[in-house]
Design goal:
single chain, 207 residues, alpha+beta, 4-stranded mixed sheet, 4 strands, rod-shaped
Length: 207
């Protein structure tokens, strides 16, 4: 029995010794690996520095340019683009009207500044109202004393439209609308003036 205990004690001592050696070996291996890795990293950085190549020790975030972000957002946005505000002018409309009158074989209108006063007032009224007024404002103007010198000396007519994107489109709308085509075919009209803004057009003619 004593001999068995002695053998067991010796075996346990050997096993403990082996375990201690394994632990010590792992510790030294870890220390050596870390130092070797650190040394290797320093060697790599020193080599890159010798060739003017620098590497940040921290990962850098890649931030796209604001322009790239905007382009990406535009591509992902399915909202329809806002409609373009018409930018054709009164003089462009006057030229388009006269070109069509000449094509239809009637005389071009002669610009009359007194009629431009009426056209200007009427356009401002329509822009403020935001829609056509069935010539109600024109009738009011014709009865105002300060404009009697115009309406008493001319036979004055008004032509209105809204929603055209170009001066030529405005002329086309008038030509294809009952009652308004007279602006383009009426040879009796001698004088005229047109004002336009934001898709609204006003033509005043007289003889």
């Amino acid at each position: 029995m004593k001999t068995f205990l002695t053998v067991f004690t010796n075996l346990a001592t050997v096993l403990i010794g082996i375990l201690i050696l394994i632990i010590v070996g792992i510790v030294f291996y870890t220390i050596g690996y870390t130092q070797g890795s650190y040394k290797t990293q320093n060697d790599i950085k020193r080599l890159l520095a010798d060739h003017n190549i620098y590497v940040s020790s921290q990962a850098e975030s890649v931030v796209p340019d604001q322009e790239d972000l905007s382009e990406g957002q535009d591509q992902q946005t399915n909202e329809p683009a806002a409609p373009k505000t018409p930018d054709w002018t009164g003089p462009e409309l006057f030229e388009a009207v006269n070109n069509r009158r000449i094509q239809l074989g009637v005389n071009p209108l002669q610009l009359d500044l007194k009629l431009c006063t009426i056209a200007s007032i009427r356009l401002n009224e329509l822009l403020k109202l935001g829609e056509l007024d069935a010539h109600d404002g024109f009738l009011v103007l014709s009865e105002r004393e300060e404009y009697s010198y115009i309406f008493n000396n001319y036979n004055v007519y008004e032509f209105l439209l809204s929603g055209a994107q170009t001066a030529q489109e405005a002329v086309d709308l008038w030509e294809n609308t009952l009652g308004h085509s007279k602006l383009l075919t009426g040879g009796e009209y001698v004088w005229g003036c047109t004002y336009a803004q934001n898709g609204f057009g006003v033509a005043i003619t007289a003889f």
